[in-house]
Amino acid sequence: MAEKRNIFLIGPMGAGKSTIGRQLAQQLNMDFVDSDAEIEQRAGADIGWIFDVEGEEGFRKREERIINELTQRQGIVLSTGGGAVLSKENRNHLSARGIVIYLETTVDKQYQRTQRDKKRPLLQDVDDPREVLENLAKIRNPLYEEIADITLPTDDQSAKAMATQIVDLIDNING
């Protein structure tokens, strides 16, 4: 890959964006950035705390600023938060500034992967996390599909295999 086009990973929580993103960045010798980690680092607080203090709206404003900034860099693999696509501005920046890869997963797989994770504010203190995931999927899946250049199911492969598959697909896009 002569030209280092940005690669943006989108998809629901538990799809493997961060894990696959790290593998992909390593294989392509590119920088890996996780927008949620970047938000936490700059805020000096975790996302759960930001949600508690500023609400989801405050968090989404921070996320918009960070994604606008990060998508202007060159040669990065960016893993976005599951809700990043809720913002029209984020969708525009992502689709205009790089290759968008939608890492698709089932609600069942998400539920398995996020069950014990205490760092998912939308799944904390809820009676039925699976129902929350189903409701999020109804809203977000069409938005992921709207801006995706490539859609890949992540349920049955290792992160390394997924990264290799993405490299091959991007090579094909770039000719």
Automatic annotation (TrEMBL):
It catalyses: shikimate + ATP = 3-phosphoshikimate + ADP + H(+). Pathway: Metabolic intermediate biosynthesis; chorismate biosynthesis; chorismate from D-erythrose 4-phosphate and phosphoenolpyruvate: step 5/7. It is an enzyme of class 2 (transferase). ATP binds at G14, A15, G16, K17, S18, T19, R120, Q157. Binds 1 Mg(2+) ion per subunit. GO terms for cellular component: cytosol. Catalyzes the specific phosphorylation of the 3-hydroxyl group of shikimic acid using ATP as a cosubstrate. This is Shikimate kinase. It comes from Pasteurella dagmatis ATCC 43325.
